[in-house]
Request: fold
Amino acid sequence: MKIHEYQAKQLLASYGIGSPEGYLAENAQEAYEAAVKLGGTCVVKAQIHSGGRGKAGGVKLVKSAQEAKEVSEKLLGSTLVTKQTGPEGKVVNKLFVTAAVDVEKEFYLSLTVDNDGAGLVIIASADGGTEIEEVAEKNPERIIKQPVSVMMGMKDYQIRAVADALGLPNELLKPFNAMMKNMYKLFMEKDCSLIEINPLVITGEGELCVLDAKVTFDDNAMFRHPDMALLRDIAEENPKEVEASKYDLNYIQLEGNIGCMVNGAGLAMATMDIIQSCGGRPANFLDVGGGATAEKVAGAFEILLSDSNVKAIMVNIFGGIMKCDIIAEGIVEAAKKLGVKVPLVVRLEGTNANLGKEILDKSGLDIISAGDIAEAARLSVARV
Amino acid sequence: MSIFINKDTRLLVQGITGGQGRFHTQRMLEYGTNVVGGVTPGKGGMEVLGLPVFNTVAEAKAKTGANASIIYVPPAFAPASILEAIDAGIELVVCITEGIPILDMARIKQYMKGKNTTLIGPNCPGLITPGESLAGILPGYICKKGHVGVISRSGTLTYEAVHQLSQKGIGQSTAVGIGGDPIRGVGFVDVLKRFNEDPETYAVFMIGEIGGTGEEEAAQWIKENMKKPVAAFISGRTAPPGKRMGHAGAIISGGAGTAAGKTAALNACGIPVAETPDKMGETMIEALKKAGIYESCLIAE
Reply:
């Protein structure tokens, strides 16, 4: 789960990692008032769940409260297109107005899960401010990686090694150590999947300062952090994906026009792939999961039927624990409710496949039956 | 022979009194798996499907001689179930549970170092040695006894691959679902090693997907060590970057972990990769023919 920069900074502050004074603004007047508090000169930052906001024009340095107001009027309600948002971009609903900082030097610093070592890893670079992927591509030797054991915790010598590699002056070692220890504490206590400070800067006064921060949480662990779940901003998420999450479905909207309903993530991806190889374009990724009920399947099918981009639907089920008759019941239920106005191609294989086919046959729905995954893809693409 | 499980495997079911545990225990018994008992704390002394239920894994192991265990316990409690099985000295632990927090798995992975337990999963369909033993949720009837080993990060895509192989007359030695989480028990290389040493396995089909580096490492290992032909499929060619595709581990981040990259890595190590999911069986058969072992892999009717 992603959260906004202002929320990440508040969370870091609650763990003793401060950042420049700043205020959330949801309209231009609030931005004006925030700028007055900050003495006029300040930075207005668009709050969207995406990196690369600066380059997209979502971060503005202003010289007065009046200018803060004007900039805010333009930013609020505008759509920012960054490298991470995709071409559709994200609408700016919130701003963070924060004190301007005199920057001497910028660093990249993050803490994340090290899947291979099965612990955490500190990732740092003296090339701060840019995206770490870019550094990794152009100057991989300038990335510092320090593994941290989740059994033993983060040790002083590990933090020193990072500080030395970054070339931090000795007098900053103590505050840097405290910052890293607090980051580790936050990471472990709140089940984060990433804490990224980019850039971390040394100010003109020679102090460490967090200019931008990003915190994401492990979705699997949200059940034990109801307080963090409150930080979710549904406005930042795709409405269809939000709808699907209510049914506990894995759904991701794509740009094509063939809606897919599949059981299992691997088979769902493979279904998208084969549609593409047949010359079509999938409208979505949708995994109905293993233990789906007819109601859940109906919910999933309704999401496909209500998508105006969808010009054909391909259902690809290999029943294991998922029984094909349950899938068929769900399809019939949703089709009765909303009507099916696009070609519907169905491939059922595995547990209770014949029972499922029987239910579909008796329903009177106009269904194009396919014998295997390749035929289903060909038929779907041909009917678009 | 086979890997991990066979007709002598004595299986415990952790979470046997729950809905999922009971349902799949029934199916495993029907398949012929030697299920010897179950564990649910506080339900010791009960009987489920004619099997004794114990309060702890240690007691169940002592009384039944179990050497393997399968876990159908909700994600909040599954990490403790895995640890309990490790501490009881169970040799093989299969965790089906989806949705375990990643930091819990990181701790377990570190705790397991140097212990005698092999962990398969979590978030996996389990494994099957056709005709002998099913420890998981795979539909047993699509599998046929034979000589191709199958390893996969996906559940239903494993069924698809096994189904294509069986339809084409190619049986399987063991099919193993290693799971879709980023931190898991055995990985591709661990399973490949076992298949390499198993005399009944003549070739291996491997199913990968976007995210992580497991397929690339496997490719290198195969090139250097594998004595048997391997063919593969990678799903997620059309997956957009930065999005988690259902599995917690299936994500392209920072341009790494793409299907194209993994396919190239496998090809560079001489491993053929099926272009599309419907060609998995075919690609395996071509590799078998090239190695001159196609006939010996056909199921004797």
